[in-house]
Amino acid sequence: xxxxxxxxxxxxxxDALSELTEFDRASASEGEKRAASMIRQWLEDDGxxxxxxxxxxxxxxxxxxxxxxxxxxxxxxxxxRLVRLTVGLFSAAALADDISGGRQWFRRALPQRSTWxxxxxxxxxTAPTTVVFVAHHDAANWSLLFSPRLPEFFGERFxxxxxxxxxxxxxxxxxxxxxxxxxxSGATGSTLLRRLGCLxxxxxxxxxxxxxxxxxxPGANDNLSGVAVLLGLARILRGxxxxxxxxLLVSTGxxxxxxxxxxxxxxxxxxSLPTQSTHFVCIDSVGSPTLMQLEGxxxxxxxxYPQPLKELLSDSAAELDIPLVRGLRFRNATDALISLKAGYxxxxxxxxxxxxxxxxxxxxxxxxxxxxxGSVVAATRLCERLIAKLAASGAGADD
Length: 399
Fold this sequence. Notes:
This protein is an alpha/beta fold. The chain has helices spanning 6-20, 30-45, 62-77, 81-99, 149-157, 159-164, 173-188, 191-213, 220-239, 260-269, 307-320, 336-341, 373-392, and strands spanning 49-57, 113-123, 130-136, 246-252, 278-283, 290-293, 296-297, 303-304, 324-325, 329-330, 346-352.
């Protein structure tokens, strides 16, 4: 057995992030493909059986959501109540489906291109229990909406409210409300609701246009830090093989376009992964000062993760004396939502700053130099301990 110490894990993470942040990795892009190829090679070098899997994706969220909100906004201007009702209902239904882990039927009519997932296997291939660790290697566009000054402003001026807050702002509520109000104005003839629907819908459309016009951020914390955990686990499992649990290390593409890569993984693999014996751990943005595990997530409907697996993860942190914040819920969505909705025991491991937000989230300062590598190493050790506990428990945590 070959022990991997924390200094080696940190060096591995630093080297990977330094190389992967040298080029853009937009969703479903050549940069994303290049990153997938590099990650696959690194995983194979550390003994994992790895491959790059090509899936289909649209690759943005600002086009589908922008078109839907613009349509609702223009419909709100129409005199015809039937137009407002019909377009508003259509836009609201398509929005709800697109942002909530649904079938994403509207974006299927938009141009599609290739996205690339990395799927690697380690651990005990014959074990009845499987744990899937999921990160993503694509990066987001920045936007004024994501300015780090916003949580800083709120946190510094309203510290008591920040301390009480356990859920991130529901930024998709007004986006969804615009088409809904437009539809209601068509049904009732309300001028006030018509104006509000128009304002919210067109305001949302302009916001999505602004996001689409921006460049891709380096994406070191979100989410090459999660990729570094996958690489660290492969290195650890090569030196200290585990029996009793099969380990899949998955780095998805097109997470930033609303989990399209994870949807592709689901189409290709969920049929062969029984929900009774498979557990998912989503590792996303673990390069902020303090690790945290979410209690639940969802842009419209909040979905809590199963308690047994959450407790297993927090128990692992306690055993290692790793601080792990509990109690937070995320009004956005991660790859964890796809496995959670499919019925798998799922947890999400992330990190936060003192303002209860990931450091440098979707901002040009999300560089390799600004990652807290102590948190990345701690996240790797936490996942290592979780593997050991699942192996020791045989069937693992119950759903």
